[in-house]
Design a protein that fits this description.
Elements (H helix, E strand, L loop, with lengths): L2 E7 L5 E7 L5 H10 L15
Antiparallel strand pairs: 1-2
Length: 51
């Protein structure tokens, strides 16, 4: 991972920091987590609560 920190002094001797970086997707980890997530939907068209 590449990270660059830029420091700049402005008026009143204040210092501003700028952080520049590069992000990358970890597709293998994303796929593993998606596959482990379950989905369950329970539905019915029976509206009578006694059935």
């Amino acid at each position: 991972m590449k990270v660059k920190i830029i420091e700049k002094e402005i008026k009143d001797k204040k210092v501003i920091y700028k952080v520049v970086g590069e992000l990358r997707e970890n597709k293998k980890l994303i796929t593993e987590n998606q596959n482990s997530c379950g989905r369950f939907i329970l539905t019915t068209n029976i509206l009578d609560t006694t059935e």
